[in-house]
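Case study.
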Amino acid sequence: MDKKRAEHILDNGVKVLKEFLPLKTYIYFPLLYSICVWAVRRIFDLKERVLAWQVWLEPEMVESKPDAFILDFFERTEGVREAFAEEVRGKDMAALRKAFSGLYPVCGLEDAFLLALFQEELEAGEFRKIADEFRERAVRAIEDIKPAGSGQEFWRGMQSVGMEMAKLGIHILTDVQVRKIILDRIRKKVKQDED
Amino acid sequence: MIKPQNPWRSVFPGAVFLTVLLSAGCSSHFKQAKFYYSEGQLRARAYETAQAAASYKRALLEAEKAVQSNPSAQAFMLKGLAEAALEKWPDAENSFLQAFAFGFVEGEEWARDAARLGLSSSLDELGLKEAALRSIVDVIDHAKFRPARLEAARRYVDLSLAAAAGLDGKEKTNALAAVAKTLEKLIDGDFACGFYHYLLSQTESHREDYRKSFEEAAIARELGLPTEKVLRDNDLQIVFIYTQMKERLSPDESKAFEELIGRWTRRWGWRDPLTPGWKKE
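After joint prediction, the assembly is written out as follows.
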């Protein structure tokens, strides 16, 4: 894959984001990453996807899980297991149940947007922070995107990033490589502005 | 001699054009609403949750325009359907009542179903769990509006399972058995509804009948589930059952179960029985 070209496309994406969401740099990565994940799956109806994000916060599935299911999630999910080792050992179900409601959508159901939104915490292994801040941050991110989402220009810009990345053959990269390249570009462009 | 010009000669064609344009606009909002609502249903059936929700939102926007410009029973019914799909139950209630006022006979009944669902939410939020549960059971037993019955079934299962978790011994066993019985009755009435099988699978998992839970989850997956979130939750339920069964079965039984689950998961395109296709690498 042409790395230089990929960087150029992502730079354009950051430019669009800076224009429409100048003060919301924390959403750049979740947006660009989701768009790349969808591009691999040949999904380009971005507006529909983003506008429906709040669906993931609705309780449409059965929320009441048995203790065994919750314990199994904490025991089998890498990182989460280590972070909550004490509660798992002591079978502190009250604490585990509380943390589960924030961690399951991110580390269990793995929505691309939520994964990217909590990327820093996931990398740093701060699973307790995800559990504590999940709902508030997810709701805030969706609310922050809404004003930019009302204009067609924003979607055209984002759509073009997805299509160009798909054309480049982004699917040959691993998930880790995709995340790294996007984060590098965002950090570089945001830093340029600050300087 | 110059004849005085008939003012209608110049105004009339314009008026006709305007009327045609306006009525075309009205019917086009209704048509658009119908189109987006149907699209939402198709997307939902294909597990494309996000697109389905977006289509329902568009359908609602168009239906709102349609009821403003040309109110009719159909327009209000469509508005109510889109609102119900987006779980805006109090709005749906109003729309169905309006549809009833315009002659849609079932509108009043649907409005009542939506109202009872809205009421159960309020009761639940106020902490009146038992009253909420009674209201939901009433919707399950009597609702004519299918989306309301599906949503009531989910809430019934969630509330009942949460309540059962606080019980012990025989009381808990009986409470869970009652939930399973209600769901089996719903399945008898609508076997092809994957969502009911998903709810039963979740309930059987609370009863620790993992084999039954697996069967129901597999049927749910085959029949289809309403959203991607539910689909993924159902998949993780299957993974959980797999790990539980492996611990409990004898080596021979375990081998047979491994073969069975392997056949299903290959059919679904999973990498192995622990890794659904949508899991990141």
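Observations recorded in class. The interface with chain A takes residues 49-55, 57, 87, 154, 157-158, 161-162, 165, 198-199, 202, 205-206, 208, 226-227, 229-230, 232-233, 236-237, 240, 243-244, 278-281 of chain B (CB under 8 Å). Chain B has a mean pLDDT of 84. We will return to this complex in the next lecture.
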